[in-house]
UniProtKB/TrEMBL annotation:
Record-given protein name: Homoserine dehydrogenase
One function term, GO molecular function aspect: homoserine dehydrogenase activity
Keyword Amino-acid biosynthesis: yes
Protein's UniProt keywords contain Protease: no
Length: 430
């Protein structure tokens, strides 16, 4: 049997899809019992030099792909909300199954698109939308479906992990490493969505919705990016036996769901601390399976192409058996969301203070008034009469920390609060 594919977008991922399909054509054909052929590709730039070739139509006319009656599967790898959303709806209405890598779209319009796929009796798969080549969507939807998932903790943005790793390990500058990540095809078209945490927040909304069977909207996710992380913070983190990562955290507790993306200090012994460079990892805890961890390349042409081809192969099998297996909306619960003030973590606080007697004692008192105690303290001289202090608290409520920081800001011996970073200790993870 021959199954024909149309691709929307021939950029980093589009080229990866073509390459993976071509380089493993024989195995893919044997495993699916069918011949998967790319028939047409849409891109607005028909002239750009690309490292791929093949016997397909390259067109700038969407209808030439979307309305070709021979095409069975549409792969959307253009990115953005529109026209990608309209094109996917159009493809489904024209009887085609769809594979997309578009987390922007799935995080916000996933429900609508899954409903449309259901109504059309077609599949909609999105494995590449989270963790690039890591099979995490299939794991949550299928392999871990017998569990009540309690925790999903992840490093799910390759660009920021690449940047933080190079800053920490090679002492390199932020801007230079970001440019390198863009050139390697890891960053989004607008890299601010990587560095501001939005890309990870979109992925976390998708993961949390699947893990907890309750819709987590993008706007439900607390987001903070990496732009305030300095080389000093990375050096102090190393001194504390830790590292700094952009962490995505989703927890299902008795009080409700907690979903947050922010830089986090992690002890080097934490399972996620050794995930470096463009690699992603997702740590998932289920009540039956216990701890699991999924690791791999979270971005890049071939890893993302790998996830997309695996979705295409699932659809090819469904087409042959005349079925659809897309598990449409999995959100049958409506769990409450925890308020940010109820998040419970330890904190790293870096301050510049006057180097005078009783300053540290007063700081301890101000935190104690909010019921917060310190786990460790580092102090370094800065000039003749100033000192830099790094305080690491024991875990506390975020609301209590804000109260303490308000008092600290008002204390005249404190010259500046230079950074406050959440500290994810191993004992908080379960
Ligand atoms: N890069 C990665 O590692 C990963 C990316 N993704 C996701 O995959 C998708 C694609 O990403 P990526 O390949 O990196 O992006 P690119 O920008 O490299 O590729 C997108 C391609 O689609 C073209 N395009 C965009 N809009 C249109 C349109 N309306 N009509 C015709 N062509 C269009 C672009 O043209 P032009 O260049 O002119 O804009 C470009 O050639 C995104 O949703 C991204 O979030 C997911 C996982 C990993
Ligand atoms: N920009 C993203 C690409 C994959 O989703 C990342 O850096 O992880
Ligand atoms: Na994936």
């Amino acid at each position: 049997m021959s199954i024909k594919i149309g691709i929307l977008g021939l950029g980093t991922v589009g080229c990866g899809v073509v390459q993976v399909l071509q380089q493993n054509a024989v195995d893919i054909q044997t495993r699916t019992h069918c011949d998967l052929q790319i028939k047409a590709i849409l891109d607005r730039d028909l002239q750009r030099a690309r490292d791929i070739s093949g016997d397909f139509l390259l067109t700038d006319q969407p209808e030439a792909v979307l309305h070709d009656p021979e095409i069975d599967i549409i792969v959307e790898v253009m990115g953005g909300i529109e026209p990608a959303r309209t094109f996917i709806l159009d493809a489904l209405q024209h009887g085609k199954s769809v594979v997309t890598a578009n987390k922007d779209l799935i995080a916000v319009h996933g429900h609508e698109l899954l409903d449309a796929a259901n109504a059309a009796g077609k599949d909609l798969y999105f494995e590449a939308s989270v963790g690039g080549g890591i099979p995490i969507i299939a794991a949550l939807k299928e392999s871990l479906a017998a569990n009540r998932i309690t925790h999903v903790l992840g490093i799910i943005n390759g660009t920021t992990n690449y940047i933080l790793t190079a800053m920490a390990e090679q002492g390199r500058e932020y801007a230079e490493v970001l440019a390198e990540a863009q050139q390697l095809g890891y960053a989004e078209a607008d890299p601010s969505s990587d560095v501001d945490g939005l890309d990870a927040a979109r992925k976390l909304a998708i993961l949390a919705s699947l893990a907890f069977n309750s819709r987590v909207a993008l706007s439900d996710v607390f987001v903070e990016g990496i732009s305030k992380i300095t080389r000093e913070d990375l050096t102090y983190a190393a001194e504390l036996g830790c590292t700094i990562k952009l962490l995505a955290v989703a927890k299902h507790q008795d009080e409700g769901i907690e979903v947050r993306v922010h830089p986090a200090i992690l002890p080097l012994s934490h399972p996620l601390a050794s995930v470096s460079g463009v690699f992603n990892a997702i740590y998932v805890v289920g009540d039956a399976v216990g701890e699991t961890m999924f690791y791999g390349r979270g971005a890049g042409s071939l890893p993302t192409g790998s996830a997309i081809i695996s979705d295409i192969m699932r659809i090819a099998r469904n087409i042959q058996s005349n079925s659809t297996s897309s598990i449409n909306c999995t959100c049958y619960l409506d769990l409450p969301l925890k308020a940010v003030s109820d998040f419970y973590t330890a904190f790293y606080i870096r301050l510049l203070v006057k180097d005078e007697p009783r300053v540290l004692a007063t700081l301890a008192l101000l935190f104690a008034e909010a019921n917060i105690s310190f786990a460790s303290i580092i102090q370094k001289p800065r000039g003749a009469d100033q000192a830099e202090i790094v305080l690491v608290t024991h875990p506390c409520r975020e609301g209590a920390l804000q109260e303490a920081l308000d008092s600290v800001k008002a204390y005249s011996k404190v010259l500046s609060i230079d950074n406050v970073i959440r500290f994810e200790k191993e004992d908080q993870k379960s």
